From TrEMBL:
UniProtKB keywords: rRNA processing
UniProt family annotation: Belongs to the TSR2 family.
Protein name: Pre-rRNA-processing protein TSR2
Name of one Pfam family that matches: WGG
The organism's place on the tree of life at top rank: Eukaryota
Amino acid sequence: MAASNSGAGGGPISAEASAALGEGIRLVFGRWTALQMAVENQWGGRNSRAKADELGASILSWFCNSRGLLYFEDLADMMDEQISELFNADFEDNSIDEVARQLLIMHEECLQSNYSSIERLRNSHVQGNAVSQSRQVFGCAAYQFVGAFA
């Protein structure tokens, strides 16, 4: 994974911020071409959608339960390992880094009760299927996530 080793703020996240971050993760995942290809082509088997949900829940939990600084490398590595394990895939398009960076920014905004990037994602319309388009990545009540990605 290429990128900086700078840390982002960790610590407590409000229920409102957690819910918003969860929605943001779902919105980003819905636009993540490589992940959508893995789900649609069932790289993780028949339960690929559930595995994508599991990945999202794991990321939200990581944000909500981490103490101290959150590092890009840690998030990107965790995502890479889980994608490899869940989907038997290696996304070599650098999209994991892009998504991890976007999620860290979104988390920082949520800590400040700034939901503007999530609002932009919510209001943007994805035309057609994310898989059929060129790659796009837009720029804790955690356990309510299960099934929420569907």
